[in-house]
Amino acid sequence: MAGPARTFSEPRVSPVVAHRVWVRTLPGPFSGRVNTEWVEYARRANLRAYPDVLGVAMQYVSGAPPIFEGQIQIAGDASYGPLVEGEREEGADFNDYLGMEWTYREAVDKPEKRQFQCLDCSGFIRMVWGYRPHLPGDAYASVIPLCLKPQRSRRAMPRRAFEICKSGPGVLVIEDAGIQVEDFSRIGIGDLVFFDADSKDGSQIDHVGMYLGRDSENHHRFISSRKRADGPTMGDLGGKSILDGTRNYAKAFRAVRRI
Q1: CB 72 within 8 A of CB 100
Q2: What are phi and psi of 153, to 5 degrees?
Q3: pLDDT tens column, 18-73
Q4: What is the pLDDT, as a whole number, of residue 202?
Q5: Which pLDDT tens digit goes with each residue over 117-127?
Q6: What's 40's DSSP letter?
Q7: What is the Cα–Cα distance from 121 to 76, expressed in whole angstroms?
Q8: How many domains does the chain have?
Q9: What does the alpha-carbon distance between residue 225 and residue 62 come to, in Å, rounded to a whole number?
Q10: How many CA atoms lie within 13 A of 90 on its CB side?
Q11: Range of 44's domain?
């Protein structure tokens, strides 16, 4: 949706992304009929600058100030994971960052103390889309249900990047064909973008981010949580955060899902 103009930037990152696009979640899968009441409610939220998915995502980059809900820190500069033998550990989900137990239909997931205030790539996406609301109050549901394993209904977002790509909610705009995606005509701001960035696991999708839009250098920029940058970033530490070109993430770009 259209809203007030804004600029997305990060300390020590030179390219910025500026536009008037705001991205929010419907209370359920789109039925083909526009809920005009919801549209008006979301429009007012935009005018009030209530954080949408893009705004929420930026609340976890380097230097982001802590945000509390009661005694729980729900946002603020996130690490990727603790150092283990010189490498950042994977596996930090949204509830590890929060330090809280989370109950699913099939299991209870207890937080890992060593991963407190950490988010790996899919944990970051699940925090932004599945835990943090994108509309004020309780007038409409505004988070995506979460699950540990893919569900047949595809109404909930599973844990791992390749599972979200294959079985997550929404529409698979560009399927994984095992080759670099170079057609950007179908990609929209807020879409999830998927990569085969690690040669150690074969051709499996192993990284997920979110498309922010064209940056000030006219590149297609995304945000994701990664090891070398030690957390969520739209910057280029550990690989340029752009979908176009011949850099590592561009060459590894494989699929797009719209939630």
Answers
A1: yes
A2: -70, -20
A3: 999 999 999 999 999 999 999 999 999 999 999 999 999 999 999 999 999 999 99
A4: 77
A5: 999 999 999 99
A6: H
A7: 16
A8: 1
A9: 11
A10: 8
A11: 2-258
